[in-house]
Amino acid sequence: MGSPCHFALFELQPSFRLDLEQLAVRYRELARGVHPDRFADASEREQRLALEQSASLNEAYQTLRHAPSRARYLLALRGDELPLEVTVQDPDFLLQQMHWREELEELHDSADMAGVAVFKSRLKAAQDELNESFAVCWDDPQRRAEAERLMRRMQFLDKLSHEVRQLEERLDD
C-alpha cells in the first residue's frame, strides 16, 4: 500500500462535501508540524522524511480543496483508473460547451466587463449545481457512469472559469 489516503491525512471520512474552512485550518496545523524549518538540526533522514510528509500534505490539500480534483480523487478511490482526458460522450454538454465558448469569445471581442460578470455568475451557478449533483451520486455504484460524466463536466467548467479570470485580467489592464 502506498501513501495514506488524502482524507485520512486530515482525519476525514471520504466525502465530496467538505468544510473547506475546516480543511484549511487542519492543513495549517499539520503543515506546521512537518515544516522543513522545524527539522533544520535533525538528521538527514528525518529532514528527508519531513520534506516527503510536507509534499504529501500539500498534494492532499490541493486535491481536496478543489472540487473537480476532489471528485476525480473520490472516483479513483473507488478503484477505477480514470484517463485524464477523454472525449466527452455527452452530446448535450458538448453543445453547451460550444455555446459557452462562443459567448466567451464574443465577450472578449466586445470587451464587455458587465457581460463577463453575468457570464461568470451563470458559470458559478452551473458549477454549484454540478457539485451538488456529484455529491448526491458519487458513492452509488449504480450511478458510477453518471458520476464520471459529472466529474468531467466539472473539469471543463473549471477550465472555462480559469479562462474567464484571464479575460477579466486582460480587460482590467
Describe the structure.
The protein is an all-alpha fold. The chain has 2 domains: 6-65, Helix Hairpins (Orthogonal Bundle); 91-172, Monooxygenase, CATH 1.20.1280.20. The protein is built from 7 helices and no strands. The protein has helices at residues 6-9, 20-34, 44-65, 67-77, 91-110, 113-137, 144-172. Helix 3 (44-65) packs across helix 4 (67-77), helix 5 (91-110) runs parallel beside helix 7 (144-172) and helix 6 runs antiparallel to helix 7. The radius of gyration is 20 Å and the shape is globular. The mean pLDDT is 89. InterPro entries: DnaJ_domain, HscB, HscB_C_sf, HscB_oligo_C, J_dom_sf. This is Co-chaperone protein HscB homolog. Belongs to the HscB family. Interacts with HscA and stimulates its ATPase activity. Residues 5-77 form the J domain.
Our measurement of the CA-to-CA distance between the termini, rounded to an integer number of angstroms, reads: 50 Å
Give a quick account of the main beta sheet: strands, pairing sense, barrel closure: none
Question: What is the CATH architecture assignment of the largest domain?
Answer: Up-down Bundle
Overall average residue pLDDT:
89
Order of helices and strands: HHHHHHH
The geometry reads as globular
- How many structurally independent domains? 2
Helix content: over 70%
The CATH H-level homologous superfamily of the largest domain: HscB, C-terminal domain
Q: Specify the number of helices.
A: 7
User: What's the assembly state of these chains?
Assistant: single chain
Strand content: under 5%
CATH T-level topology of the largest domain: Monooxygenase
Q: What's the Cα radius of gyration?
A: 20 Å
CATH domain class name of the largest domain: Mainly Alpha
Unreliable stretches: none
Number of strands: 0
Helix and strand composition category: mainly alpha
